[in-house]
Automatic annotation (TrEMBL):
SUPFAM superfamilies: FAD/NAD(P)-binding domain. It holds the Pfam family FAD_binding_3. This is FAD-binding domain-containing protein. Belongs to the 3-hydroxybenzoate 6-hydroxylase family. It comes from Panicum virgatum (Blackwell switchgrass).
Length: 331
C-alpha cells in the first residue's frame, strides 16, 4: 500500500506491504460485473429476471407476499429477501427511513488497458484537503479508481458522461500523474458520481429487518454504509451466507414458526456485526475528509507516518461465517 499527498507530484507519506503490517491480511479488488456474473452462473438458467423493477409489494395473508413488477408481471412469494440496494423500495415499505447523506460525494471509474495495465498489485491512496483519491488494479487490463470530495448537498444529477469525467479531472488537477493517467484511460461511460449515504440501525429505534416470517432485508437495503472500510459488498455476502444457513436449519425442523424465528435470529446476529461497522465507516470518513490546513498537516506529518497501524485497523475483516447446526427434527 502506498499513501501520498498531492503536493510536489505526490509526496510519499508511507508505503508498506500487508505482510509487514498485518500478516495474513490481504486486499482483493474484484470488478462488480465479474462478481455478479460469477454468482449468477451458479443458479439454474432463467432464475434471474433482469431489468424487472419492483412496482409494489403487498401481504396476502397465509398465501404469502405479492410482488408486482413494472413490466406488469406478478409474483406470489412465500419468502421475499429484499436485497434491492441502497434505495430499496422493500425497506421503504417496511418502514425504514431514507438513507442519510453524509456530506461527501464520490466519483468512481474503471480504466481499461487493452494491451495490459502497467501498475503493480498495490493500493494507492492520495490525501488532499477535503478531497482524497485512490486507485488499484482489478485485473490484468483494468484499474479501479475513486475520488471522494466534500459537498454540502448532493446537487443535481449529471447524465452527460463527458461532463462527469471532466468534473472528476478538474477536482484533482495537478495531482500525481499516475492517477490522472488512470482517469484519462477510463471510457466516459465508465465514470459515475454518487452521494455517499448510510443508515445507523439504532437498537430499539430502527424497524425490524424482517416481517412475519415472510419478508427480510439484506445488504444495502438494510444497512447501507459508506465505503470507507471497503465492507459494504462484503457485509452483503456475509448476510447471504448467514441468512441461508439460518433458513436451511429452519427448513429442516419442519415447524411452521421456524422461518420467522430464523429471520429474527439472523437479524440479531447480523445487527451485532453491521451496526458497529456502519458507525465506524462513517466516523473514518469524517476524519479522512478533513479540510483544515493545520489538521491535514498533522495527518500527513504525524498520524499516517507514525501512528496508523494496519493490523488493528483491519480487525473488522476477521469474520467467520460459522456453521449452524440444524435443529433436531420434530417427532
Amino acid at each position: 500500500m502506498r499513501m501520498r499527498s498531492p503536493a510536489a507530484g505526490g509526496r510519499d507519506l508511507r508505503e508498506f506491504s500487508f505482510e509487514e503490517e498485518a500478516p495474513g491480511q490481504e486486499v482483493r479488488a474484484v470488478e462488480r460485473r465479474v462478481l455478479l456474473e460469477t454468482l449468477a452462473s451458479k443458479l439454474p438458467p432463467g432464475t434471474i429476471s433482469f431489468s424487472s423493477k419492483l412496482k409494489s409489494i403487498a401481504e396476502q395473508g397465509p398465501d404469502g407476499t405479492l410482488l408486482e413488477l413494472e413490466d406488469g408481471r406478478q409474483i406470489l412469494s412465500k419468502i421475499v429477501i429484499g436485497c434491492d440496494g441502497v434505495n430499496s423500495s422493500i425497506a421503504r415499505w417496511m418502514g425504514f427511513s431514507e438513507p442519510r447523506y453524509v456530506g461527501h460525494m464520490a466519483f468512481r471509474g474503471l480504466a481499461e488497458y487493452a494491451d495490459g495495465q502497467p501498475f503493480e498489485p498495490k493500493v494507492n491512496y492520495i490525501y488532499g484537503r477535503g478531497v482524497r483519491a485512490g486507485f488499484v488494479p482489478v485485473s490484468p487490463t483494468k484499474v479501479y479508481w475513486f475520488i471522494c470530495f466534500n459537498r454540502q448537498d448532493s446537487g443535481s444529477k449529471i447524465t452527460d458522461p463527458a461532463v462527469l469525467k471532466s468534473e472528476a479531472l478538474d477536482l484533482v488537477r495537478g495531482w500525481p500523474s499516475d492517477l490522472l493517467a488512470v482517469m484519462r484511460s477510463t471510457p466516459e461511460g465508465a465514470v459515475v458520481r454518487t452521494p455517499l449515504v448510510d443508515r445507523w440501525l439504532w437498537s430499539g429505534r430502527a424497524p425490524s429487518a424482517s416481517r412475519g416470517g415472510r419478508v427480510v432485508l439484506a445488504g444495502d437495503a438494510w444497512h447501507p454504509m459508506t465505503p470507507n472500510l471497503g465492507q459494504g459488498a462484503c457485509c452483503a455476502l456475509e448476510d447471504a451466507v448467514v441468512l441461508a444457513r439460518r433458513l436451511a436449519a429452519a427448513g429442516a425442523t419442519g415447524r411452521a414458526d421456524g422461518v420467522e424465528a430464523a429471520m429474527r435470529a439472523y437479524e440479531a446476529e447480523r445487527w451485532a456485526r453491521v451496526f458497529p461497522l456502519t458507525a465506524r465507516a462513517g466516523l473514518v470518513g469524517a476524519l479522512v475528509q478533513w479540510e483544515n490546513p493545520a489538521v491535514c498537516a498533522a495527518r500527513d506529518g504525524v498520524v499516517i507516518p507514525r501512528l496508523v497501524r494496519l493490523g488493528p485497523f483491519l480487525e473488522h475483516t476477521n469474520f467467520e461465517c460459522d456453521l449452524i447446526e440444524p435443529a433436531p427434527q420434530s417427532p
